[in-house]
Design goal:
The protein has about 200 residues and is mainly beta. About 5% of the residues lie in helices and about 25% in strands. It has one helix at about 70-75; strands spanning about 35, 65, 80, 85-90, 110-115, 120-125, 140, 145-150, 160-165, 170. It is globular and about 40 Å long.
Length: about 200
Amino acid sequence: MFSVLFCILAWPVTAQDAPRLLFPVDCRLGETCFLQQFVDHDPGPGARDFACGPQSYDGHTGTDIRTTDMAGMAAGMVVVAAADGVARALRDGVPDGGTASMGDGQGCGNGVALTHADGWETQYCHLMQGSITVREGQQIAAGAELGLIGYSGRTEFPHLEFILRHEGRVIDPFAPTATGSCGSGEAALWRDALPHVAG
């Protein structure tokens, strides 16, 4: 069964413990895809991203990477594994169409969860119906195709929601040791530097 854990940043991790992550979408950032929203760093009812900006919403647990429009999704934008791992769980068969087509318990839509060494996990949500290319228990190499960006689950636009966890706790790959704070300027977990473009 594919489950989504909604938990917030709780304790710090050290950079040496964490995997170095590939960007999980095969696209040209800033041209064919965009960083839409980030993990919420506000411990209260408000929302702020890792740089103390407005690109989040209350309780958001992932990094949203969106296509430019529906045509961009229809062209097929590949989602890849951010690190070596094993496919722990997956779900396919949720219609594309956003929130209006979502059934109970299908907030993530079609998705894949990968386990990694030392208690790490990545989750890939809102994939296109019928596009998932892996099976449960399969060994997955970093960069391997998992599926395509879709419009399934609780969403109002086509995108990938990329979620990183350590021991079940959500970790922001842009600020892995921040716990309810923002603006630390710490090193991110991405193998290659990614820009933070204000929304």
